[in-house]
Amino acid sequence: MTPGSMGKLIAAGIAIAYALPLFLSDSYLFIAIDFLIMALFAVSYNLLLGQTGMLSFGHAAYYGVGAYTVAILAAKLAIPVHIGLFAAPVIAGLVALAVGWFAVRVTGMYFGILTLAFGQLLHTIVMGWYSFTGGDDGLPVMPPDWLLAPQSYYLFSLTVVLVCIGIIRRISVSPFGKALHAIRENRQRATFVGLGVRNYELGAFVIAGAFAGVAGALRAPIQQMAFPSLLHWTQSAEPVLMALAGGIHTFMGPVVGAALFVFANFVITTMSDYPLLIFGSIVLLVVMFLPNGIVGAIQKRRTRSGSAS
Predict the structure, then answer these.
(1) Where are the domains of the chain?
(2) What CA–CA distance (Å, rounded) separates 201 from 245?
(3) What is the pTM of this model?
(4) Spatial contact of 67 and 230, defined as CB atoms under 8 Å apart
(5) N or C: which end of the chain has fewer CB within 10 A?
(6) CA separation for the pair 302, 1 (Å, rounded)
(7) Are the C-beta atoms of 242 and 36 separated by less than 8 Å?
(8) Beta partners for 139?
(9) In the prediction, which pLDDT does 272 show?
(10) CA distances from 4 to 9, 252, 261, 303 (A)
(11) Per-residue DSSP letters for 53-121?
(12) CA dihedral for 202, 204, 210, 215, sign (positive or negative)
């Protein structure tokens, strides 16, 4: 597929996405909003796993921080949700900077365990700080009147998510993104050629945390609550599964994984009380038979077809 035809396909997809409120009922629009939020969450995470090769088990911490930023600003300072949305990536990025400063000093499984520990520490703080976060009761957040309608919130979320994914795409193909790719391929060689590996890893960690914060900031108003469970380690499993299912070495893989997660979850929840377990089993089958993920397998087959022709 040529770049021109790819651009036309993307433009057509965006046009269809903006037209969906004309055809979908409110209940399906809520599912579409859920997909948009999870797509941004997964793409932000894949900047770490797929682009840099950093397996984090605490990415939900910044997702939750973004949600609580919007909720706290609305509850304590009466700042509207759409204004608080600008603060969410800043606060989430600063928290990611503090955690990442320690975490990037180790690699591999030690890095994963350290991110998990910090994530659970933040979850514990939110759970116990009743005067500020509402503790395990959560903190209510009400979107302004113009965002109360599902159609309005869908269009708002779609615009925010498209802008954020576009920025992440530009980052991934920039010289900074190429450096992250080099670190993923061979960390030691990247050090030898003069890359400041820890600084690049810290930069990726902060950027990924900031965009996860935007996803969380979109989540809280649609639920009209910010809950401590948004920071829990089980929430961190979701972007990992979505990225793996779609393909961690493709940019659109996590988006496809998010679609599979959200829509499969919608069907599975009507049949089982353990949707994450069933979805995890689906991902396991995908990884076993499609080790490059769904999008990776499609791209590989397309490459083979092009070579054969």
Answers:
(1) 26-231
(2) 24
(3) 0.93
(4) yes
(5) C
(6) 9
(7) no
(8) 226
(9) 72
(10) 9, 18, 30, 18
(11) ----S-THHHHHHHHHHHHHHHHHH---HHHHHHHHHHHHHHHHHHHHHHHTTS-HHHHHHHHHHHHHH
(12) negative
* Contact status, residue 154 vs residue 32, Cβ threshold 8 Å: yes
**Cα dihedral: 201, 203, 207, 210 (round 10):** 110
What is d(CA 89, CA 208) in angstroms, rounded to the nearest whole number?
10
Name the helix (H) or strand (E) containing 185.
helix 175-185
Reference 25, options 161, 149, 160; nearest CA is: 149
What pLDDT score was predicted for residue 19?
92
**∠248-54-162 over CA atoms, to 5°?**
50
Question: Whose CA is closest to 94, among 61, 137, 140?
Answer: 61
Q: Nearest-CA neighbor of 144 among 152, 154, 134, 155? A: 152
Residues in contact with 223: Cβ distance below 8 Å, sequence separation at least 6, in sequence order: none
**What's the longest Cα–Cα distance across the chain?**
66
Q: Please report, for residues 46, 242, 281, 282, the alpha-carbon distance to residue 265 in angstroms, rounded to integers and kept in the order given.
A: 21, 12, 12, 11
**β strands within the chain, DSSP E:** 139-140, 225-226
Write down the pLDDT at residue 213. Answer: 96
SS3 category, 278:
helix
The pLDDT assigned to 180 comes to 94
C-alpha 29/C-alpha 21 separation (Å) is 7
Q: Do 280 and 268 contact (CB within 8 A), yes or no?
A: no
> Residue 92's closest CA among 137, 53, 59?
59
Per-10-residue mean pLDDT for the chain, 309 residues long? 64 89 89 95 95 93 95 90 92 96 91 94 92 88 88 95 96 94 90 89 96 95 91 90 90 92 82 74 82 83 65
CA 283 – CA 291 distance, rounded (Å): 10
Whose structure tokens read 């209510």? 140
Long-range contacts (CB closer than 8 Å, 24 or more residues apart) made by 19-24: 20/154, 21/150, 21/151, 21/154, 21/155
